[in-house]
Amino acid sequence: MPSETLLRFAVQNWFAWTPERNSLEHWLDWAGPCRQEAYVAPVTLPLSLRRRATPIGQTLLSGALAFTETVGQARYVQASRHGEFSRSRQTLRALADEDELSPAEFSMSVHHGLAGLLSIHVQNREGHIALAAGTESFACGLLEAAACLAERPETSILLLYADEKLPFEFAGLVGPEDGLPCVVVLGLTAPRMDGDDILLAQRPATQPRNPSVSAASDFLKFLLSGSSQATSHGEHWDWSWRHA
Fold it and tell me: Which of 203, 139, 134 is nearest to 174 (CA)?
């Protein structure tokens, strides 16, 4: 593997949610002087989607559906460390109790379930990619999305990221879960060469990861603020972004 990966892309619009920051005003107060205000407000989910998704999945879908100009034509990259784990938890409990498994819960417990549900709802045939990379799931998802744009620059990308903390039974078994729960949807396009493009660099980690931050919050702070560049230190990689 090369020592550095460098990719260029543009962020057209964005949506993000945490329990503490669930509106544009909250994000602007958190980020300080704002460079990127193309915030997309979530929409009300139709009942057909709301009853098939967990609360974290509902938040992701309501944000993604607000990208009305691209959600029907973009390729999806879904990144999540745990996915909708509450579904898997129910399946594991049913197995332990020797109960019958719910076909609906089992079919939606796969890691790309939400991307599949979204694509069916909007009749998007572009396909999607799902990945999990531990604590670096968001950053690796962004890397994959940028690589997809390099491969097919004519097709925009929706990066779908959603994660929440695992239930208390699993506390201490999965490492740090900083910044969770968190939902991020980014509408990405090929470079525009207008000064707002972003260059992403991936390098082997140079220092221990800071347990008080996450790559998702690091990137959002960089995107929204006037910072010209930023670096997030992960467990295995350093992720650097700068405005081209």
Answer: 134
Decide: 17 and 204 in contact? Cβ < 8 Å: no
| 50: three-class secondary structure by DSSP | helix
Which class would CATH give 5-243? alpha beta
Q: What is the pTM of this model?
A: 0.90
Strand spans (E) along 165-236: 182-189, 198-204, 229-233
Question: Locate tokens 């819960």: which residue?
Answer: 105
Which three-class secondary structure string do you get for 83-132?
CCHHHHHHHHHHHHCCCCCCHHHHHHCCCCHHHHHHHHHHCCCCCEEEEC
What Rg, from alpha-carbon coordinates, does the chain have?
A: 18
Local structure of residue 39 (DSSP, 8 states): B
Ordered per-residue pLDDT tens for the chain, 244 residues = 445 568 999 999 999 999 999 999 999 899 877 766 689 999 999 998 998 899 999 999 999 999 999 999 999 999 998 888 777 776 777 677 667 766 666 666 677 889 999 999 999 999 899 999 988 999 999 999 999 999 999 999 999 999 988 887 777 777 777 788 999 999 999 998 777 899 999 999 888 766 556 899 999 999 998 788 999 998 889 999 999 8
Task: Give the strand order in the sheet containing 182-189.
Answer: 128-131, 75-79, 157-163, 182-189, 5-17, 198-204, 237-243, 229-233
